[in-house]
Specification:
Layout (H helix, E strand, L loop, with lengths): L1 H10 L1 H17 L6 H13 L1 H11 L2 H5 L6 H30 L4 H52 L7 H8 L2 H32 L2
């Protein structure tokens, strides 16, 4: 598993370097203003797509042919992408914490709530995205990924539109942030487990003919 994670990180090193440069540039350009809100969105969104980028490099290099000659199980190969996504997400939150410390005093409760919602959104996106990529590949699945992102954005936007009077949305709006966050994270855990099972099934069907 460690070898697979290193492989993906080596393949993504240029993107990670570009990401670091962009963050440093934004920090420098906005050192006298409050750019925290933008970075709190940009950083998780960037890390959310890293597993897809790693799969794209695998497809380009015909990694599945090489992996078939190695002592890796299909479960290990699939889980490595999910684990890489979680590791990159944890690293992103450390970067955001560092940025917050540099930005000055902040409310820990507000910060944890913001991070919690960002985490819930990223996990949901990855849970939907990875099975699509394992089933149809990056090139064919990118339109489905875009569609999933649009649907997710519409759902999130619906929560913030008071004029959209739907009973489920009204119930969610009336919940406290803490309660809503617990519900979203609990749903993400269930969806993530289902996502792993689907990705494993699709991987075996696509690459192993099982």
């Amino acid at each position: 598993m460690i070898g697979l994670l290193k492989k993906d990180l080596y393949a993504l090193k240029r993107q990670l370097l570009l990401f670091a440069v962009i963050c440093c540039f934004l920090a420098f350009m906005n050192r006298n203003s409050n750019a925290t809100g933008f970075l709190l969105i940009y950083i998780p969104v960037f890390t959310a797509v890293l597993p897809t980028s790693a799969l794209a490099y695998d497809e380009q290099s015909k990694w599945d042919l090489l992996a078939a000659t190695m002592p890796y199980s299909s479960l290990t190969l699939v889980l490595s992408k999910y684990l890489m996504g979680l590791i990159c997400l944890c690293a992103a939150f450390l970067v955001m914490l560092f940025w917050q410390l540099l930005s000055g005093p902040f409310s820990a409760a507000t910060l944890l709530t913001s991070w919690g919602f960002a985490l819930a959104i990223v996990l949901l996106y990855q849970a939907v995205m990875l099975p699509l990529v394992f089933r149809w590949g990056v090139e064919k699945g990118r339109f489905l990924i875009l569609a999933a992102a649009i649907v997710l954005a519409v759902l999130i936007g619906g929560l913030k539109l008071p004029s959209l009077q739907l009973s489920p949305l009204n119930s969610l709006r009336e919940m406290s942030d803490a309660k809503l966050l617990c519900i979203l994270l609990s749903a993400d855990v269930i969806l993530y487990l289902i996502s792993v099972l689907l990705s494993l099934k699709f991987y075996r069907k696509r690459y192993q003919g099982a």
